Amino acid sequence: MPLPDNAQFNRALCDFLARATTPFHAVQVMAERLAAAGFRALREDQAWRLEPGGKYYLTRNGSSIIAFNLGSAAGPEQGMRMVGAHTDSPCLMVKPQPEKLRQGYFQLGVEVYGGVLLNPWFDRDLSLAGRVTYADGGGAMRSALVDFRRAIATIPSLAIHLDREVNQNRSINPQTDILPVLTQLQGDKAPDFRELLAERLRAEHPGIDVARVLDYELCFYDTQPAAELGLEGGFIAGARLDNLLSCFTGLEALLAAGGEQSALLVCNDHEEVGSLSAAGAQGPFLSSVLRRISGDETAYAGLTDRSMMISADNAHGIHPNYADRHDDNHGPRLNAGPVIKINANQRYATNSQTAGLYRLLAREEEVPVQAFVVRTDMACGSTIGPITAGGTGIRTLDIGVPTFGMHSIRELAGSRDAWDLSRVLRRFYDVDGPLFPA
Length: 438
Hints:
Layout: H1 6-19, H2 23-36, E1 40-41, E2 55-60, E3 64-69, E4 81-86, E5 91-102, E6 105-113, E7 126-135, E8 141-147, E9 181-184, H3 193-204, E10 212-222, E11 227-229, E12 235-238, H4 241-256, E13 263-268, H5 285-294, H6 297-306, E14 308-312, E15 315-316, E16 339-341, H7 352-364, E17 370-372, H8 384-392, E18 395-400, E19 402-404, E20 411-414, H9 417-429
Parallel strand pairs: 1-2, 4-13, 4-14, 14-18, 15-19, 16-17
Antiparallel strand pairs: 2-3, 3-13, 5-6, 5-10, 6-9, 7-8, 7-10, 11-12, 12-20, 16-18, 19-20
């Protein structure tokens, strides 16, 4: 299946972002795409019967997903071409006992997930989505996804008249200042939030038997859809570009690959909080799948030695108002190509071999390449790249689309870069022969 053109790609990306409001919804949408393309679902608790040329996918926790094909011409023992990304984004998550009734307004207590840029969350039209675990009428425990799909809350700003120094010295207390307002009530009793969830579940999934809600994992999100903008449509603005843009880019590349080489896409949850979880990159999900594909430890060692991972996670574009936050020679520009991310202290896993291979592939696709190195006097972030490389021994490249406003409720990327990255990833999936010299 060929890749769509740039305009079609961006329209599909915006549609994906609209549907993938949480990691659970992102995985659900990706699984639907894979199944429609002929990938067969696997379960970790069952025996696998894998065949040359076969296409498969499996999920863990409903929030991480691995999809792979066993090459029709080259089996996994000859090396797998792998792309990794993450499904989670910084957000506000609802606390277990969240109900607040203050000054007649019904609010929900929230916990900050990841490194959230809090200022942009004020005065937004917010909705709520995630996974709900409930008991049915027979007492059995079940789970279902929920998404209110409309604006049900907002976090109002405090007027400047009541905080005259706000533009000079504003600080946000995450415990007291960012509680969303859902409605105004008469009386002194707040609604039962779990019952509100039960009603929404019944409305969204007609026919299911919800006796009571047991627990939930719910995120607030901005209802404003992703969109192209700029005088010439040069930008894409939207929520969760970090890192659903990379999930979508890797998925499109895998679906467009020829299938002759063994290829894999992994999208992990919990990267924004360190990746240490059953579904995170620091957990056993990927290594467990690769071991089952290999069949034994000797074959697994050969697979990892001959494979390569491209860890795709957004990069910091050089901001025209804050250009001094970048190294003079390493300020990536939007729409000037994907960015190889390099750090001598191994906060990124790129080395000269993996960067060199990517540069060759990009040249073949006529895609420009940029490089990012953090200022030497600033701390450097990290990705699933070093975690995957350290846990599996697989050569890894860190790369990403340059972005403004990373970890904001609405981020900004160039309208060409994701498509360019997907083209190179598709070529990477189809590389014939050994990836590296013996």
